[in-house]
Design a protein that fits this description.
Layout (H helix, E strand, L loop, with lengths): L2 H20 L4 H13 L3 H17 L3 H22 L11 H8 L3 E5 L4 E3 L7 E7 L2 E5 L8 E6 L4 E2 L1 H6 L6 E4 L3 E7 H10 L1 H21 L9 H10 L1 E5 L4 E3 L7 E7 L2 E6 L5 E3 L8 E2 L1 H6 L6 E4 L3 E7 H10 L1 H26 L1
Antiparallel strand pairs: 1-8, 2-7, 3-6, 3-8, 4-5, 4-7, 9-16, 10-15, 11-14, 11-16, 12-13, 12-15
Helix pairs in contact: 1-2, 2-3, 3-4, 5-7, 7-8, 8-9
């Protein structure tokens, strides 16, 4: 809202305030004043005026209207109090008018410890904001028997935005780790808000990107063992890069500025032996790391890497990766041991190819 619009609303506020004072038994003037107060972000006064309007409606015999107004007042009051007490990154930069639009029709849900809010693979019609308690985000990866906890949602965080933005089923289960309270925002209301306030979509996409990057990190059997703070640190600095089929990711003897995790697609590796003969090695698949040992040893990569179909790679800056690994030597050593096994296996494959 620009200064001209704000000034116009303030003039109308003065007018309807006077009309409500002159005609205290006419509900229409008070109703219009309340609408203006909400638009001007004067929530507390609007809630107080709603109480007056409820009494007027009752005097006029409009009990159903009075009850609906009471429900709306309590919803605005409760949700505003909850959200004001929450350091919410998604809502922090949203205009008050957008916030009011999102809150209309919002539903508060209480969860007991162990209760499921969302089940992986399901369809759902809302985005949730955590008001209190903790909720575990669990993903069942292929080739794993049990789900992996990729994140612990705490007060102020949102969940369900990926399925909303991509039109997909839920890609994770959400289970209350403690008694918890969430606020459910309905898709219809969110879509209306996005049409009027595009910046809300930007906030949602930012949250979605971070969650997908965190999911990719947890999809790797080594990196998933890192502490939550370390994984968050990697995810914050990472970026997702899309490669078309038959793209050259890198050439041998080149130093990469990143180490990667395959999110989707397939990468083939072509390595040369000492005699200059080329060998096609085992492909890099979803969940596998790329150039992790080269990053730790500050060496150039030893092979050409080419995508064979559309591929998505999460790229983490080398310096950030080293920083996290140095702070977690146990995981670093396991990563190096795993790499040594891969190299030994690769050498066997090359020898077999020669024979």
């Amino acid at each position: 809202m620009d200064k001209t619009q704000t000034k116009e609303l303030e003039h109308k506020e003065v007018l309807y305030r006077q009309m409500a004072d002159l005609y205290p038994t006419e509900p229409e003037y008070l109703r219009r004043l309340i609408e203006l107060l909400l638009q001007l972000d004067k929530e507390q006064e609007a809630v107080n005026k709603m109480r007056q309007l409820e009494k007027l409606y009752k005097k006029h015999g409009l009990k159903d209207v009075a009850k609906s107004l009471k429900d709306l007042r309590q919803n605005i009051s409760d949700n505003t109090d909850d959200l004001n007490a929450t350091l919410n990154p998604f809502l922090s930069n949203i205009k008050p008018e957008a916030l009011h639009m999102l809150m209309r029709g919002a539903k508060r849900i209480q969860l007991s410890e162990g209760e499921t809010l969302i089940k992986q693979g399901d369809h759902d019609d809302g985005i949730y904001i955590v008001l209190g308690g903790e909720l575990a985000v669990l993903v069942l990866y292929r080739k794993r028997k049990n789900p992996t906890m990729i994140h612990m949602l705490k007060e102020g965080e949102i969940v369900g935005e990926i399925a909303f933005l991509e039109g997909s089923v839920r890609n994770a289960s959400i289970i209350a780790n403690t008694n918890a309270s969430v606020l459910k925002l309905m898709h219809k209301r969110i879509l209306q808000c996005l049409l009027k306030f595009p910046e809300v979509g930007d906030s949602l996409r930012h949250e979605s990107e971070f969650r997908k990057q965190l999911t990719a990190i947890n999809g790797n059997k080594m990196l998933t063992m890192l502490p939550d703070e370390a994984k968050d640190h990697l995810a914050v600095h990472a970026k997702t890069i899309h490669y078309p089929a038959f793209s050259v990711i890198s050439r041998s003897k080149k130093n990469l500025s990143w180490m990667g995790i395959m999110i989707s697609g397939l990468v083939r590796i072509v390595a040369e032996d000492r005699l200059g003969q080329s060998h096609l090695l085992e492909p890099i698949k979803s969940g596998d790391t790329i150039a992790d040992i080269a990053a730790l040893r500050e060496e150039a990569i030893a092979a050409d890497m080419i995508t064979v179909n559309d591929s998505v790679i999460l790229q983490i800056p080398v310096e950030i990766f080293r920083e996290v690994m140095d702070a977690n030597p146990r995981i670093k050593n396991r990563l190096i041991e795993s790499a040594a096994e891969r190299i030994a296996h690769t050498m066997v494959c090359i020898q077999n190819n020669k024979s």
